[in-house]
Amino acid sequence: MSAAHGETVMLPGGGVRVEGALELVPVPGGVRPVRLPVRQWAHFPPAAEILRAVVSNASGVRLRVDTTATRLTLRVRCARIQIGDFLRPLNSFVAQVEGVTVATAEPPADQTLQISFAGDEATTVVHSDSSLVELAPLPAGRKTVTVFLPQSMNVDLLDIVGDAPVFPAEPTGRPLWIHHGSSISHCAEAELPTSVWPVVSSSIADLDLVNLGFGGQCMLDPFVADAIAATPADVISIKVGVNIVGARSMDQRTFVPALHGFLDRIREGHPHTPIVLCSSILWPGSDDTPGPSDVEFLDDGGIRCFTAGDPADIGKGALTLAESRRQVAHVVDVRRAAGEDIVYLDGLDLYGPADVPAHPLPDSLHPDAELYEEMGRRFAQSVFGEHGLVPRAVLLKGRSAGLAALQNHTPDEVAIASH
């Protein structure tokens, strides 16, 4: 079974099922969940330390255990990320039972991974070998506990101990959703990993999530498409635009062909899987200005992120966020006309001009936890709701049809089809 469906890890004090990662990398004393298979890392650009860090962050990664314990203690090794002079946020550990939060714990910072702003150098500063994280009190009786890991940190899992035996939980059997996006899908700014908007959406829609939201790194990289193609999924979503505009990495001529190529690679592994293609949310004040992006340091200690390109360059082919939405919608129209199972969600439906008064963006680019949670509710309703673009009932029906088709093959044919 793919790591995306969860892998069992036996630790000295008990067993866990790790979900939401695409690989478990051996580290001294344990394993580190990562969200992009290491075999893909050889295709990273030369200055890729930021990329390596964010794909190793634990956004959407969770542990599931069956136990009667009322206290769980994790031994972990957590690395906080520092890029240039910017320390990325600390996020909590959260324990849930039946979708209800029952305990939280602050994360340790056992290490600081210091990365140059250019991404060409990285140094690890060690503060401690490991730390204990206690989650208590938990409800009495036998239960399945889900522990969400801090989404903007690298977390090495070394051990788990309870005041009663701890066993790996069984797979949920729920439909699997793979989502790829930018920092606005990574959601590092939220204190709780359960405020990550794809996590919120997956909880509402009762789906198993693999969140490939990579801060600053949603660039239509072929190695990401290949990883998605190689991973079983019942539905796939891609939210694209803001990183490409912010880095000025593509223009009006190259964006659409690159997006088609990204989708073509995914289709090699998922010829019939529903795909939701989503454009970017509003970037107030920067929607109609091309990149590159820049940062202004404010007198109150805050920052403002904005696009700093020359509007005159639009006529020369520069891409704006507003234009990227039109082009993403165009790609969906072309592919739907060819019979593909693909739908478009306008990012302005998740956060648009009418939302600015009630939900101003703290740095003019990234939402806060309250808005991330609202975006998760909106996405769940617009996409997976009863009248959504890809209703959950349709996913269940498609899964049942696929299993029935497999049952009509010989065992050898099943092995080939499953592969």
TrEMBL record:
Residue runs in coiled coils: none
Pfam families: Lipase_GDSL_3
Superkingdom of the organism of origin: Bacteria
InterPro entries assigned to the protein according to its UniProt record, in alphabetical order: SGNH_hydro, SGNH_hydro_sf
Domain SGNH hydrolase-type esterase: 179-280
Protein name: SGNH hydrolase-type esterase domain-containing protein
